[in-house]
Amino acid sequence: MSNEPILATHGLIRRFGGLVAVSDVDFDVRPGEIHAILGPNGAGKSTLINLLSGEIPPSEGQVLFHGKPIQGKSVRQIARMGIGRSHQKTNIFPRLNCLQNCELASRIHMGGVFGSWRSRQRARKVSERALEVLETCHLVHRAYTPAADMSYGEQRQLQIAMVLATAPTLMLLDEPMAGMGREETWQVTELLKSLTDRYTLVLIEHDMDSVFCLADRITVMVDGCVLESGTTDQIRTSEKVREVYLGRHHEEATA
Amino acid sequence: MLHRYPRRVAIIMLALTLCVAVFPLWGPAVFGDQVDFIQEKLTLMVILALFTMSLDLLVGIVGLVSLGHALFFGVGAYTLALASPEYSAASLWWMLPLVIAVAAITAFVVGLLVIRTKGIFFIMSTLAFGQMFFYLISTSQFAGGTDGLFIMFRPSVTFGETTLLDLSNSQTFFYFCLGLLIVGYLFMRWLTRSYFGQVLDGIHDNEHRMQALGYATSGYKLVAFVIAGVLAAIAGMLAAMQYGFANPVQLGWHTSGEVLMMLILGGMGTIFGPILGAFAYEILLYVYEHLTVHWPILMGLTIIASVLVLPRGIAGLIIAPPWNRKKTPVAKEQAAESVIPPNSIQRNEG
What we know:
The complex is a heterodimer. Chain A is of the alpha/beta class. Chain A contains ten helices and ten strands. Chain B has a two-stranded antiparallel ribbon with strand order 1-4. Chain B has a two-stranded antiparallel sheet with strand order 2-3. In chain B, a hairpin with a 2-residue loop joins strand 2 (157-159) and strand 3. The two termini of chain B are 26 Å apart. The A-B interface holds A 53, 55, 74-76, 79-80, 84-85, 87, 91-97, 99-100, 103-105, 107-109, 113-114, 116-117, 120, 123-124, 127-128, 131, 135, 140-141, 143-146, 162, 166 and B 1-2, 194-196, 198-199, 201-202, 205-206, 208-217, 220, 330-332, 334-335, 338-340, 342, 345, 348-349.
């Protein structure tokens, strides 16, 4: 694997009126790594992810994916380029069952709707791909359950399965463990761990244990700026991070 | 897939279709000399059912509430009226394709402009286009202004010299409309169960997510908009044939509102519901009109009551009757439909 970053940002700025949500961020993701973004609420993590997936345009600066700027491309074009993302809020199709949810995701990346109208073989391939990702996400036994009837944790897992089904080269996961219990968080952490050798991940997460267990590199954001970026060990021992983030976190925990 | 219903739906719909189809056999015995009038009414109901079903594709399936659907109904009616020669019958062989083409082009152009709007803005922009056409037509000399246009002859259906269908015969016309409704229904059923239909379901549930997956949702919505417009125009053409004229009223927002009420009464997003809705609405209208001149009050109360008591309309009553509310095991039926048989999945698990 080359060390050429798969995704890079240069001087990325996003303003909402007078508020600078993301301020001059230089950030890069190398192929095959899990890159976690940490930061207190309002640090601009979600805004950054939205900039990376093209859901909001940057005020200044640019995002390069495989060295090419994604500026001016629509969300769907960026998705077709290979950036898959999941959202902080559960974002599935509640009336369809698990398999259909994943089929919808895999079909668009296997020639689209009109192609598969013709060929039964392709329809089968689409289903097989969907089944494969359900297996990866331990949801096979739920294949025919309507998504709305599943537990919250399973729905979150399905969301990851759908991102996988689009066969992305880069996955952006916005708080995949949000609102989960201990047991479920651990399950998803295991799931993400099992993906590390095949996918490149950008992960926003609040759960410290999961982040330090999963991430290869961590970027810590505060007030829209990158405070520190480095390997997991570097972040763990960083004074600055300890002060601003972990310190406060620690105090809160002991208080 | 999503649009699969218990077997009793098919049984009820088939029974009703049969009942309507053999009306000429039992009609005279029940209605006496009123039978011709009732048959005209029945034909109108069949036409309106097709119209309501086309709106269901937008409102119930894609989740786009349109208040300008009568625009396409009117396009069908006026295309027929304007293209028909004055002293002879047009041929259906070119009239039907013409109506479809004009409606498709109109729907495509209007759709391009409205499809990016959502919710209330979609309602308002479709309403705006509907009213624009209404005023355009009702003030235009060539379209007969507020009087509309008369159609002296219904199109002929001939093959060489022989007449295949004599549409000026009210019974033949009735079966012609019924046939088109059945074809339209089968088409819609196929469409909603296709992969294309699944994408429309996805857009209904969560358009943003569909985009994030890589779907060009506007394109799919536009295709649905055009299909709905074309079906509505065919219904409009039939209505103009039935009445013998095209009138601006057919274009107005009143008609759009009325068809929306039929849809709500019948049950949105079910394809068969709208058919029942159109029939129920017209029957209620007929009854209320005979009871009182203030029939709109009764009709309004009925619609409000149906929304309160039957949120999924008449269709909901059939899919899940109140005396049988236990969950239907759809999952199994769905599994049987899948490309990959469920038993192979069980094996994978073990």
